[in-house]
Amino acid sequence: MMSTPADPRSTARYGSEGGGRNRKSQGNLTGKAIAIMAVVLLAGLAVAIARYMAADAERGDVTISMVSHERVADDTMRLWVDVTRKDPNVESYCIVTAMNYEMAEVGRREILVKPGGDAVQRFEVDIPSRDMPVSGSVYGCSTSVPAYLTEGPALASE
User: Fold this and answer.
1) Given pLDDT bands bounded at 50, 70 and 90, which one contains residue 149?
2) Could you list the residue range(s) of the whole structural domain that residue 98 is in?
3) Residue 134: is it exposed, middle or buried by C-beta count within 10 angstroms (0-12/13-18/19+)?
4) Which pTM does this prediction carry?
5) 130 & 108 share domain
6) Mean per-residue pLDDT, 8-17
7) How far apart are CA 118 and CA 5, in angstroms?
């Protein structure tokens, strides 16, 4: 039986016969790198989901939705909004804005929602603006009411 003579060009091009082991170890390294990246991505996804759920639970106590809007003057926008509270006995506040043609905020008003009343309440809010308003928007709500909304000037000076 005849054997094929070794060609020096193929050894230079493809490496020695033992080179197969190097390729296999390189394949293992690539597989390990992919596995590590997958674990890191899954951990990041788990953290993102946990943060989203925590933020969702925080903002879920009070929500606001815009019903309608009307420009009553070149510097005033009127909004009708519905505020929904899980617990109507908890004081809260919401922020609404007036927008211009470029959808930039040109006015803002905070609505204090006092304890009591129905779980869903409708408010009519006039928002003074520094430019011609064309639309309104709801920014959001919170149960952490700032002191300046509950304390009048007389209360703050006492």
Assistant:
1) confident
2) 61-146
3) middle
4) 0.60
5) yes
6) 62
7) 94
Q: Which residue has the tokens 């997958």?
A: 38
Domain count, the chain: 2
Q: Do 65 and 44 have their domain in common? A: no
- Residues 64 and 82: their CA atoms lie apart, in Å, by 6
Residue 51 lies in a domain: yes
Phi, psi of 76 (to 5 degrees): -145, 130
- Per DSSP, helices labelled H in the chain are 8-14, 19-59, 147-150, 153-157
Q: Which two tokens stand for residue 143?
A: 């149960």
Same domain (yes/no): 53, 65: no
| Model confidence pLDDT, tens digit, residues 85-139 | 999 999 999 999 999 999 999 999 999 999 998 999 999 999 999 999 999 999 9
Residues 69, 103, single domain; the answer is: yes
Running DSSP on this structure, what letter comes out for residue 53? H
In a domain, 106, yes or no: yes
Torsion-angle region of 113 (φ positive above 0: left; ψ -120 to 50: alpha; else: beta): beta
* CATH number of the domain where residue 95 is located: 2.60.40
* Burial of 85 from C-beta contacts in 10 A (0-12 / 13-18 / 19+): buried
